[in-house]
Amino acid sequence: MRRHRQALAALALVLLPACSSDNKASSPDPAPLEESLPTSTVPATPVVARVVSPEKDSVQGSAGRGMVIVLTFTAKDANALPAQFRVGGDLPSPATPAKPGHNPAFPGLVVGASTTAASLGGPEANLANLFQIVSPSKQPDGSVQVSAVWTNTSASFGSDTEVTLAAFTVEGTAPDKATPPLSQTVTSNLAVVMFRLSAADAAGVGPGGATSTTTPRATPTTGRSATTTTRRVTTSVAPTTTTRASTTTTLPATTTTR
Q: What is the pTM of this model?
């Protein structure tokens, strides 16, 4: 129960202050968060949660798109991590993108981001169902590990802004909104990372697609005078000899008889 309260309190500290009246994300203060969160390296929980990507203070994606979130959850007891393989959501069919909420392939997963747009449910929305890849595996020591991967294709989490992402697992099926108090028992530590979503780059990459600008390269001019080389072409013509056959005309002798 104490672990349950700690995780919920930490989640509230991470996500809720990010909302402001003008719907703009504010940068979280890392010092109080780090002091209040349970450590993610030595958790006294059935499940060990870890953020593999992004790394702390890294800059992700372009113009708010393309951040890569990779989470791993490890447990000695397979019953603590029910999950099945999934490839879905935005991949491979962008025409039918997934919506926030619990992930049927990984029902106990809870993920929140401080800059989640109000149209997606705000910072309290459980983003678990946006994870396109869920893959369980068995480790050499006999433990079970579940990997969850997600990349965003729309700028629904801001751009040129700081983001705090938190993830943990619960027993049973996670709620579609992680609004305290949760009725489920928390089974993992709270894994947290703070990173930045990049702005549009100089090439003008935006939500609509990539564009590029090509600048003509100047051709250097030298002061050397042009040198013209004239080659003499000699043509040999063989003499033509025409032989005409001589024509001999023989006239018959004429005899006059008187």
A: 0.66
